[in-house]
Amino acid sequence: MNIVSSAFKQSTGHTACPHDCPSTCALEVDLAPDGRIGRMRGARDNSYTAGVICAKVARYAERLYHPDRLLKPKRRAGAKGEGRWQDVSWDDALDEIANAFVKAEAAHGTEAVWPYFYAGTMGQVQRDSIERLRHAKKYSGFFGSICTNLAWTGYVMGTGTLRGPDPREMAVSDCVVIWGTNAVATQVNVMTHAVAARKNRGAKIVVIDVYDNPTMKQADMGLILRPGTDAALACATMHVAFRDGYADSAYMAKFADDPAGLEAHLKDKTPQWAADITGLSVEEIEAFAKLVGATKKTFFRLGYGFTRSRNGAVSMHAALSLATVLGSWQYEGGGAFHSNSDIFKLNKAELMGTAFVDPDIRMLDQSQIGRVLTGDAEALRHRGPVTAMLIQNTNPVNVAPEQRLVKQGFLRDDLFVAVHEQFMTETAELADIVLPATMFVEHDDFYRGGGQSHMLLGPKLVEPPETVRTNLFVIDELAKRLGVVHLPGFGLSEREHIDHMLAASGRPDFSFFAEEKWLDCQPGFEEAHYLNGFAHPDGKFRFRPDWEGTPAPNKPPKVLGSFGPVADLPMFPDQINVIELADAEHPFRLATSPARNFLNSTFAETKTSRDKEGRPQVMINPADAASLGIVSGDVVTLGNRRGSLRIHAEITQAVKPGVLVAEGLWPNKAHLDGEGINVLTGADAPAPHGGAAFHDNKVWVKAS
Prior knowledge:
Elements: E1 11-16, E2 26-31, E3 37-42, H1 55-58, H2 61-64, E4 74-76, E5 85-87, H3 90-108, E6 113-117, H4 124-137, E7 141-143, H5 149-159, E8 175-179, H6 183-186, H7 188-201, E9 204-209, E10 221-224, H8 230-244, H9 249-255, H10 259-265, H11 271-278, H12 282-294, E11 298-302, H13 312-326, E12 335-337, H14 349-352, E13 363-365, H15 369-373, E14 388-392, H16 396-399, H17 403-410, E15 416-421, E16 433-436, E17 445-448, E18 454-458, H18 471-482, H19 494-504, H20 510-516, E19 518-520, H21 525-528, E20 588-591, H22 607-613, E21 617-620, H23 622-628, E22 635-640, E23 643-651, E24 659-661, E25 697-703
Parallel strand pairs: 6-14, 7-13, 8-9, 8-11, 9-10, 11-12, 14-15, 15-16, 20-24, 21-23
Antiparallel strand pairs: 1-2, 2-3, 4-5, 4-16, 17-18, 18-19, 20-25, 22-23, 22-25
């Protein structure tokens, strides 16, 4: 009889996915006796994750133990981008960074230093501690515009706050409309609950997107729009609702600001009008309008695709308004959901050092990093140059728009850059100092969902390599060298930060979460569905948004004012063509959509993800390919005023004529000429509060 000691048995750890995804999945992690992790699974007893996670996170061990992981601090030994490095001690590396910051400040003032970060981890401590150093030292501010602004702004223009029906209610809906998100690839849990509704209730799933993607293939009704035309579909659907009696007049009389004005405005927004704009047929629009009009329990799941077009705020508001016209909010399994970000109310004042904020310090737009680093006066707010940077949790040389400007800026001889990273990304390759960073199972942190309703603890589960350090460590060590470590918030452990934040927020402490793993913060039904009134002062949903006056989740400081062509924003929901419309010189519209096996630039370093994605390609409709003399596998050149690149063509019916889709944020070096798809994307700030319109590009195509 072979008896195995319990000391050698595998155990299970519990944590949360740290990546830039609304799902924030609760995870179960296999922990081996040798201190290594194995497979990850979705937590079965978390009611939103429900045991399901994406394949790329399930195989996270491939990333954690990747042979190319950064393990030692490095100093540049040759020219920028040359790829020659020498190992350096942690103390020497941190000394060099601090000295460079002091030198930049002496020459050009504190604003010459720009700490730059984003969502490589969504952990509150490891992501946001960099802000405490920024504020304490009066370094240039960071306006984080690249991901959420357009969608968040459009949503709160209607509701007044960023919350909605419990996303688990999709499972009890009679119709789930998945609009502007390829959920199979990017938010798999949306499909878990939508498919449950179809299986258990016979619910219909409608998918609205710009191409025939994996989510579209799961749909009972799929609507493929021209990019940036979502508002036209929403307006025509509301037109039909008023025309055919689906509009809930009693509900609107109680809960909306100007239903009569909206109805009058929509008189000429017919299905034929929308068909000409969207590329849908009149029959498709009528069928969609009838389905959602006749189905009271319709759940509109509105995704982050709305953030990728210059008219995205208007499009989000129009799609959201549809739920109000139909009165869908009244029903369990009905209403419109985008994000629950406003329900958690975490007090991060100490963590982020908000007591040190100086309103006179300039704010620089994350999305315009190329313009900032190449000396654009407007991007710099007409102040001095940026000559020193610390970068954590992001890879702007790959992910930021106007990639040629970004790279040009990073190659400046007078710019000092320190990058704290897990791999030698294309941003790290252009740095002066590179520091190795921990991964999420190697440190404590705390998470909250946007696409769901849980706060979750992410405790340290395994020991990191000896030479690797946390983001928090780097911030505190620099604070020591820069003379601010004595200020409140510095010198605390991750656990202390979490406990202080939770106490200030009126939430249970670290120990509670260590035992319970998560806390469900979903508001009650009436609050979530706005049955006590919407979050504007008069309790009314806004069909007539105040684009500049309404508070928004990520509104620029007053000193910056509004962004983009605010005067063009409509009084009521409408299609506005502030997008890059195709023209004679640029007859195609290009969307740079997410790939299933990458998450922004993360996972592009793992062999399995790369193998599954194949190579960078652009999808082209067969009719367009025939007119250009292109067959599948050919190399084509895409271009616009920002630049051009060569890429392989995939000829497919998945895209409509005149539309191109390039899936996945491949590393620049994976492309034929070493330049990635963001050569073609723009950084002009959309109205009203900025953003980055990655799916909104006019281009030409030539056979190479």
